Amino acid sequence: MPTSLDLPTKGPIHDPLVIEHQGLRIRLAPDQPLRPKRLIGRTKETGLIKLAWDVNIATEEVWQVLPGRKPMSIKLEGAPGMGKNALIEHCASKLQGYKFYSIAGHEQLEPEDLILSIVPSLDADKRFELHASPLLTALLTPRSIFFFDEINRVPERSLSMLSSLLDHRRAMYSGLVSKWFTAATRNPGDFIFCAALNKDGARALPEYIDQRLLPTITVGRPSREEMMAIVQGACATDDALMDRFFTWYIAKGADRTASVRQCLLLLEMAKRDTETSMDDLARSFMSDGNP
Amino acid sequence: MELLQYRNLYVLPYQPLSLASTVFVRRALEHIRPGSMHDVVALPYPVNAKQLFMERLAELPDHPTAMVSEDANGRRCLVPVFVHEPPVEAARFAMEHGVEIAYIGGHVAMKREEEIRYELPVEAGLLGVIGVKPWMDIIRPWLREPGYDVRDRYDLAKMAELCKAFDRVVMPVHVQDLDQLKSLLDDLLSLPSDRRFDRSGQPYTISVADPKGTELYPHYMGPMPGLSSLYEEMRAAGRAAEYDPHTALVRTAMNMVERDPELRTPIEAHRTFQLLIDRTLATKGVTQLSLAEVLELACLAYGKPFSDRLHRQLLTYRESAPRVIIHFTEEERKNLRFDNIAWPPHKFLMSRLRRRIHKLVDEQPVLERRSHVMRGSLEKGIDVRATMRAAFLGDDRLCVRAHDRTTQVVDDNEPIVMLFPQRDLDPRHAQFCSTWVGQTRGSEQYTGVWQYCTSSDRRVQNGYLVRQHFNLGMVVFCDPLLHLDRLKESYRSGDEMRNRVPIRRLKDPVLCDLEEKEVRGAIGWMEALFTGAFHYAQKAIVVMLPQGQVLPAKVNEWATRSGKGVILVDAGCLTNYEASDLRYSDYSIQGPHLPQKDDRNDVGYLLDLEERFRDLIVLGGNT
Question: How far apart are the two ends of chain A, measured CA to CA in Å?
Answer without folding.
Answer: 59
